[in-house]
Amino acid sequence: MFTRCPECQAVYRIHAEQLAQAGGVVTCDRCQKVFNALTQLFNELPGPDISPVKPAAPGMPADLQNELTGETTQQYQTPTVTLKRPTLEADRQTKTEAQPITTTSNRSLWVSLAILMTLVTTINIGWSLRDKLLDQPAIKALAERAGWVQAPREQPQLVTDQFFLVSRDMHPHPGLDGALILSATFVNRADFRQPYPVLEITLFDTSQQALARRRFQPREYLDPAADPKAGLAPNILLPIVLELQDPGPHAVGFEIQFL
């Protein structure tokens, strides 16, 4: 059972022993109000809008009814029972109900922070050790599949002996003095696309002594619209035209090598 102070609305759990000890008269520990607990009885913990259980007047002796209203207290000066603050059920119930919510909320917050800190720490450690971790084939393959690490592109195979000259010619430049025009056509006989080779042009004299030598990168002999990284497909004829400085009348022959 519960009783409520009519003055300050403090709620207490009360037992039959306390009611019998002083005939229902009690003292509120909060405001020191003396009241008859029998007129403020509740079967359950009362809310602010709950009314106490009313005594049934019909069938009850008059002197007992008068005792319940507090008149006996004034007439016989029955000692009262002081309801101590530690038994205050309203405060206990409020703390009991509120505590799990606060505890659960705090616990969830701490768990989230712990997970976040663990994740950040793991990322920092992984980043600082990324080179060593990527040396492990399994970890490297997993990182490449997840898109965290870009797999290195396989370099196209270059087989220079599969390039063949179809035609070649060299003659004086028609518009520039002291210059030569070298025209040639070569083909890739491999059954796969190859990177464009580097061309090495060597000019010889009559005794096959090298008079001049120069290397041309793909971007120097390809058409400006062509992509040097695309490579040369199989069995495609590629014509080129190169301008060379004329080393003099002693240059009587030339050689083209694929590097």
Total number of beta strands = 12
Q: Strand pairing plus helix content: what structural class?
A: alpha+beta
Q: Gyration radius, to the nearest Å? A: 52 Å
What would CATH call the class of the largest domain?
Mainly Beta
Number of helical runs? 7
Order of helices and strands, N to C? EEHEEEHHEHHHEEEEHEE
What is the terminal separation in angstroms? 103 Å
CA-based shape:
rod-shaped
Strand order of the largest sheet: 2-1-5
Major sheet details: 3 strands, antiparallel
Q: Calculate the mean pLDDT score and round it.
A: 80
CATH fold naming of the largest domain: Immunoglobulin-like
How many separate structural domains?
A: 3
Note poorly predicted spans: 59-78, 86-90, 93-102
Helix content: 25-40%
Second CATH tier, the architecture of the largest domain: Sandwich
Strand content: 25-35%
Secondary structure layout:
Layout: E1 2-4, E2 11-13, H1 16-21, E3 25-28, E4 34-36, E5 41-42, H2 62-68, H3 71-76, E6 81-83, H4 89-128, H5 130-134, H6 137-146, E7 163-172, E8 179-188, E9 199-204, E10 210-216, H7 218-221, E11 237-245, E12 253-258
Parallel strand pairs: 3-6
Antiparallel strand pairs: 1-2, 1-5, 3-4, 7-8, 8-11, 9-10, 9-12
List keywords for this structure.
alpha+beta; three-stranded antiparallel sheet; Immunoglobulin-like; rod-shaped; three-stranded mixed sheet; 30% helix; 3 domains; 7 helices; 259 residues; single chain
